Amino acid sequence: MGTWIMAGITFREAARRRILWTALILGLGFLAVFGIGVHFQVEDFKVHPLMPLLHYEVLAGMLMVGLYTVDLLAVVMTILTSMDTISGEITTGTIQAIATKPIHRWQLLLGKWLGFTGMVGAYVAIMFGGTVGVTYWICGVAPNHPLAGGLLVFMECVLVLTITILCGTWFSTLTSGVLVLGLHGLAFMGGWIEQMSGFTQTANLVLVGIVSSLIMPTESVWRRAAFEMQSAVAGSLNFSPFADISVPSLTMVAYAGVYLLVALGIAIHHFNQRDL
Question: Please, what is the Cα angle at 202 between 199 and 208, to 5 degrees?
Fold first, then answer.
């Protein structure tokens, strides 16, 4: 019961944060710009028609770029809104007002994690569903397996959230934010280096990508989501940014899930032990 009470309090506090509403407003602005872009592309096809297959692939490619942007926005929003949930309260001393109440520390941290998970889920649902819905409404194009893709994007955000909270039990707010962004950047670069192996046929590039994925598996989760959602034709093109050159397996997705749970367990353990 204490965990769910903390989850509800955290969700309400997160919903009142100005940065969340700013991210949501900017996200709606993105949907408007994206929808206008798709509309203009459809209108241009009426003047300069293409073969049906190429017509579909161009619009499906625009949809994948839109979903890639949504993924980036969701990850950054998750980090910025949650990076001071533990470290900030420890620094200001407000955590003591909660920790001294008849509630275990693990319930406090887990409740905060659940509250932010709910907030992230709502944001991903709005942005991901909005992008897919706008595209389908304008041109009738939808991704393959949108549910699987959306759940993987949500999983990536929860993974980032968990690492952010874990860092918050060790470091200051600013250090936690920089560290998590740096780890995500490492995973991002490793993923693209691995994709480059399709052009150069260099096995070492694949190894770099695998090692970076083991350190921080966020980009692997996204690339699996992209594989699930894009068309087979786009995936077979080596010059596509979402080409099926080195697709993360379901084993890697399972590894990301275990990674998430271990990180949450370490965060709870350290929070229980540290001096507030």
Answer: 105
SS3 readout for 63-105: HHHHHHHHHHHHHHHHHHHHCCCCHHHHHHCCHHHHHCCCCCH
For position 250, what pLDDT does the model report?
A: 92
- Which one-letter DSSP state was computed for residue 236? T
Q: 264: part of which helix (H) or strand (E)?
A: helix 250-273
C-alpha to C-alpha distances, 24 to 16, 58, 260, 264, nearest whole angstrom: 12, 28, 26, 27
In terms of pTM, does the model score above 0.70?
A: yes
CA distances from 108 to 24, 69, 129, 149, 163 (A): 27, 33, 31, 31, 17
- H or E segment at 241? none
Residues 109-132: tens digit of each pLDDT = 888 898 889 889 999 999 999 999
What's the start-to-end Cα distance of the chain, in Å?
23
Q: What is the residue extent of each domain of the chain?
A: 2-273
